[in-house]
UniProtKB/TrEMBL annotation:
It holds the Pfam family OTCace_N. L-aspartate binds at residues 77, 160, 208. Keywords: Pyrimidine biosynthesis, Transferase. It catalyses: carbamoyl phosphate + L-aspartate = N-carbamoyl-L-aspartate + phosphate + H(+). Residues 146-286 form the Aspartate/ornithine carbamoyltransferase Asp/Orn-binding domain. Carbamoyl phosphate binds at residues 49-50, 99, 127, 130, 249-250. The lineage of its organism: Bacteria, Bacillati, Bacillota, Bacilli, Bacillales. Residues 2-140 form the Aspartate/ornithine carbamoyltransferase carbamoyl-P binding domain. HAMAP family: Asp_carb_tr. It comes from Sporosarcina koreensis. Heterododecamer (2C3:3R2) of six catalytic PyrB chains organized as two trimers (C3), and six regulatory PyrI chains organized as three dimers (R2). Belongs to the aspartate/ornithine carbamoyltransferase superfamily. ATCase family. Its EC number is 2.1.3.2. This is Aspartate carbamoyltransferase. Coiled coil: none annotated.
Amino acid sequence: MKNLLSMKDLTIEEITTILDRAEILKQYGIRELPVNYMVSNLFFEPSTRTKMSFEVAERKLGLETIPFEAGSSSALKGESLYDTLRTLEEIGMDVVVIRHPEERYYEDLIGKLNLAIINGGDGSGQHPTQSLLDLFTIKEAFGGFKGLNVLIAGDIAHSRVAKSNADALTMLGANVTFLCPSEWAGEFPSVCEWEGVIEESDVVMLLRVQHERHDGESRFTKEEYHQRFGLTVEREKMMKPGSIIMHPAPVNRDVEIAGSLVEGRRSRIYKQVENGVYIRAAILEVLLKGRELTWRKSLRVPMY
């Protein structure tokens, strides 16, 4: 695996390798790598969990994290993403984590660069590292995926998390159902009512309404959305024993999920945050393991 760009690109074997490595790291701790690799996090959109958990994982692995601020970079002067990455490659970067507002921003980069690229989210496209930590959290709860019923509710059309998880969970044998207003279904068949699906769901995954990706105002007030499409306290009582609640966050309490359920007994929302560090450390290990840096220029220091 040279890059991590989309869940569509991963095999079951590659997913399993990352999940198994994350489990070992969580059990025994993240240790520094024997090679002093350099990494930079290029976030062209706001992020808390993804950016910070990558930074924590990088520090625990002993990587040199080189700061990058999109708001003060040459991108503001019109420099292309390729030229930015080509510059970082030449000064010795081994891996970059990129979040970008443009969907599939990475298509024009494939095969042109020697540094490794981790997609930290591309517009409404994919979010593979979030999907992998979601899979890890589900596996911790149920031991596997085959036959599980996963209900994903919210702004499906604009959610890279929904798309990534749909690809991965279906590949791994889970049954995925989408619940949302009909105009937010995007490419997926969906239902509009909780009754008949929530009672059979092992995992209920809520998604934030991504107002920043909508044209115009929503036809729902926050209260209306919560009552029709949110996980209310009353609906939580309909969930079967042993089922769990997930959310990639940020959470809008009392909109997509009742505030009292965020840290309730079924919730794995903050467990997902914790697991993000182990998954991202595992991804970095897998990408960097055995990496041949023949492209990096050797320093020839004269002897005196």
